[in-house]
């Protein structure tokens, strides 16, 4: 995932700095500025736009909660496969594992061969569909691959890959075997999210054409078969296992859907984990769908470790993430689904 972000969080305000970062490695530039100094004496900016006031406050269907212990077990299972970069044995195994876990569900593979700077690489998106009673679809997505340039290292991708894949499975557990009162819910496990800039190990450049292979492929497919038109909301989960959870508001996501996510968090008393500052996510799996007019919300905590130190680092290990964070985000997404279902 690639980001260009502006911090206006309380932490940044206390330091009287504005941190701006515009590259994949997210080197931060700190500078004193009048704007930041002024902010230090004022309450933080309103966390929601006026649009939030018009978002439906109703919910439909029974309240659901994720089983965080099960989600945590899924994280461990996935990490046990080792690195899961595209073309690796671990990646193959995680695909088989997902099929095993989803064996009683309606599951479709979207297989293709990606043309990458490192050559042709077979990839496979996996989609599990849970039928609802209303005409329309809510999508929850996450990427299953781990960082390609770090494939020769011990990179585990506990947060960046495993945590959200596990959470999607745990969300599926709540949807299975029920007659869903609202829209159908589709879980989309994306392959090929990470950039493959070249075959050279350690080449960490992020390039838009050489990333998001899976989501770009599925977005095209769903555009052709008419699915995109039926999607009422698309929630992307990325890097939300962080023990120190602070989900950012993404200015590249659909404002009303971001407002709805915030409202869902407020209902559950989890608002302190959400939208303390704004990020512009310029490369993630929601964007190919946004290009086709799908309402999207990237639920992401890019602030992983001090100044993002654990992101795309061998430090991205299970001790940095927590079942509690999975539970918070999982429950908020489940509440958001109920709110989308109640929307006129
Ligand atoms: Zn990543």
Distinct helical segment count: 10
The neighbouring-strand order within the major sheet is 4-5-7-6-8-11
* Count of distinct strands: 11
Average pLDDT reading: 85
Report the major sheet. Answer: 6 strands, mixed
Strand content: 15-25%
Report low-confidence residues grouped into runs of 5 or more: 5-56
Supply the CATH class: Alpha Beta
Structure description:
This protein is an alpha/beta fold and 344 residues long. It has a single domain (46-342), classed as Aminopeptidase, CATH 3.40.630. It contains ten helices and eleven strands. The protein has helices at residues 10-14, 34-40, 68-79, 89-101, 158-175, 213-224, 227-230, 255-267, 287-290, 323-342; strands at 2-6, 18-21, 29-31, 106-116, 119-130, 132-143, 180-190, 231-238, 247-250, 274-283, 296-300. The strands form two sheets. The chain has a six-stranded mixed beta sheet, with helices on both faces. Strands 3-2-1-10-9 form a five-stranded mixed beta sheet. The longest helix has 20 residues, at 323-342. The chain starts with a strand and ends with a helix.
């Amino acid at each position: 995932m690639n980001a260009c972000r502006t911090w206006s969080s309380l932490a940044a305000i206390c330091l009287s700095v504005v941190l701006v970062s515009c590259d994949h490695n997210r080197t931060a530039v700190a500078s004193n500025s009048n704007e930041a100094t002024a902010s230090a004496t004022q309450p933080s900016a309103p966390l929601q736009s006026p649009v939030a006031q018009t978002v439906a406050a109703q919910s439909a269907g029974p309240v659901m909660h994720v089983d965080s212990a099960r989600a945590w077990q899924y994280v461990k299972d996935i990490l046990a496969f080792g690195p899961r970069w595209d073309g690796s044995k671990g990646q193959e195994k995680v695909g088989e594992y997902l099929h095993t876990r989803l064996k009683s569900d309606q599951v479709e593979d979207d297989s293709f061969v990606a043309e990458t700077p490192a050559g042709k690489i077979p990839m496979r998106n996996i989609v599990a569909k849970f039928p609802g009673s209303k005409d329309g679809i809510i999508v929850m997505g996450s990427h299953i691959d781990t960082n390609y340039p770090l494939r020769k290292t011990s990179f585990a991708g506990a947060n960046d890959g495993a945590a959200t894949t596990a959470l999607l499975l745990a969300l599926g557990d709540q949807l299975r075997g029920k007659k869903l009162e609202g829209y159908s819910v589709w879980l989309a496990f994306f392959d090929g999210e990470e950039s493959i800039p070249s075959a050279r190990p350690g080449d960490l450049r992020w390039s838009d054409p050489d990333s998001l292979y899976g989501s770009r492929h599925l977005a095209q497919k769903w555009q052709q078969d008419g699915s995109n038109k039926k999607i009422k909301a698309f929630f992307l989960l990325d890097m939300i296992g962080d023990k120190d959870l602070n989900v950012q508001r993404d200015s590249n996501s659909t404002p009303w859907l971001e407002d709805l996510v915030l409202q869902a968090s407020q209902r559950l008393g989890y608002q302190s984990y959400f939208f303390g500052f704004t990020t512009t996510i310029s490369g993630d799996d929601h964007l190919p769908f946004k290009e086709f007019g799908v309402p999207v919300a990237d639920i992401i905590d890019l602030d992983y470790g001090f100044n993002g130190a654990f992101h795309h680092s061998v430090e991205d290990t299970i001790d940095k993430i927590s079942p509690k964070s999975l539970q918070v985000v999982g429950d908020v997404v489940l509440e958001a689904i109920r709110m989308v279902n109640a929307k006129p």
